[in-house]
Automatic annotation (TrEMBL):
<dbReference type="Pfam" id="PF00107">
    <property type="entry name" value="ADH_zinc_N"/>
</dbReference>
<dbReference type="InterPro" id="IPR011032">
    <property type="entry name" value="GroES-like_sf"/>
</dbReference>
<dbReference type="InterPro" id="IPR020843">
    <property type="entry name" value="ER"/>
</dbReference>
<protein>
    <submittedName>
        <fullName>Zinc-binding dehydrogenase</fullName>
    </submittedName>
</protein>
<feature type="domain" description="Enoyl reductase (ER)">
    <location>
        <begin position="10"/>
        <end position="320"/>
    </location>
</feature>
<dbReference type="InterPro" id="IPR013154">
    <property type="entry name" value="ADH-like_N"/>
</dbReference>
<dbReference type="GO" id="GO:0070402">
    <property type="term" value="F:NADPH binding"/>
</dbReference>
<dbReference type="GO" id="GO:0016651">
    <property type="term" value="F:oxidoreductase activity, acting on NAD(P)H"/>
</dbReference>
<dbReference type="Pfam" id="PF08240">
    <property type="entry name" value="ADH_N"/>
</dbReference>
<dbReference type="InterPro" id="IPR036291">
    <property type="entry name" value="NAD(P)-bd_dom_sf"/>
</dbReference>
<dbReference type="InterPro" id="IPR013149">
    <property type="entry name" value="ADH-like_C"/>
</dbReference>
<keyword id="KW-0560">Oxidoreductase</keyword>
<keyword id="KW-0521">NADP</keyword>
Length: 322
């Protein structure tokens, strides 16, 4: 089989290689999946660069999320051959992957691969963060990097719950896109002062911040919280830690907590996981929640795909297909 791997951490363009490898054989509790599509997430790039929370065991394939078809069954024959599934794994930029059968989710055939390969990480993170945020109808939520795939999903899901969403962007043309998805307020931080606009429009600040950026923007977002507010940190797109204002934390009684989907999924029971997946897949199938696709490339054109991923102003995911 073909796979994209790296033997040392570094910039993807410099360390990724397209190589031949043996097709993996599943263990008794595993299924083998013929991968049909996978999307490029920020976490994938950080993993390749050695900057993610999980250290790669070299050599390693890239990618955490994908969709595919069951090619070999586990010993209990839990899933039939040909079943369409989504899954997460360490290294999905390859033609075949073996994963524990309990970690894969069967999905309807009619869900397109370009959508299905995005159905795990971002939609579930958006669902889980809204569920655990404590936000109620009428509350204000601030989302940094609002034009990201995650930001768009949160806007759509929050809108269904009656939660008002403010979000940050860096390009004026993104305002109309996010407003059309249901955002109540979109702030271009290249031209507007975030805290000033938030206070003018909300009166007292937002109840919760979902921060994907960190750095100075994260600090500015923290200052937008009202008394007893909470910031949930789940990304570090700026690659810079948030410089914290201790006075804000003390006198406004603010809370900051991290969120990682892996930890969340481990903390909930089987019934809660079933509800989460059912809700997300229902949203995607009904198109109550939509995801965007920027471009689709074959796996062997991964370098071109990464170039597309790194383009400024990108409005959708870049997909790698087998």
């Amino acid at each position: 089989m073909k796979q994209v791997v790296f033997h040392e951490v570094g910039l993807p363009q410099e360390v990724l290689k397209y190589e031949e490898a043996d097709i993996p054989q599943p263990k008794p509790h595993e299924v083998r999946i013929k991968v049909t599509a996978r999307n490029i997430n920020p976490s994938d790039i950080m993993f390749i660069r050695g900057m993610y929370g999980i250290t790669p065991k070299l050599p390693s394939s890239a990618g955490f999320e994908a969709v595919g078809i069951v090619d070999a069954m586990d010993e209990k024959e839990t899933l039939a051959l040909g079943t369409k599934v989504i899954f997460t794994a360490l290294g999905t930029w390859k033609e075949y992957v073996t994963v524990p059968v309990q970690s894969v989710i069967s999905i309807p055939e009619e869900l397109p691969d370009a959508v299905a390969c995005q159905a795990f990480v971002n939609p579930l993170t958006a669902y889980a963060m809204l569920e655990t945020s404590g936000l109620e109808e009428g509350d204000w939520l601030l989302v940094t990097a609002g034009a990201s795939a995650f930001g768009k999903l949160v806007i759509q899901m929050a809108n269904q719950k009656g939660i008002k969403v403010a979000c940050t962007v860096r390009r004026e043309e993104q305002k109309e896109v996010l407003t059309s998805l249901g955002a109540s307020l979109v702030i271009n931080t290249e031209k507007e002062k975030l805290q000033k606009v938030i206070m003018e429009k909300t009166g007292e600040g937002v109840a919760v911040v979902f921060d994907a950026v960190g750095g100075i923007l994260g600090a500015k977002a923290l200052a937008c919280l009202k008394n007893n507010g909470k910031m949930m940190v789940f990304g570090l797109l700026s690659l810079e830690n948030i410089p914290l204002n201790s006075g804000l934390l003390i006198f406004k009684n603010l809370k900051i907590e991290g969120f990682w989907l892996t930890s969340y999924m481990e903390s909930i029971n089987h019934e809660q996981r079933e509800i989460a997946f059912k809700t997300v897949l229902s949203h995607l199938l009904s198109e109550k929640v939509k995801v965007d696709v920027q471009a689709i490339y074959p796996l062997n054109e991964f370098l071109e795909a990464i170039k597309e991923y790194e383009k400024g102003g990108r409005n959708g995911k870049v997909i790698l297909v087998s």
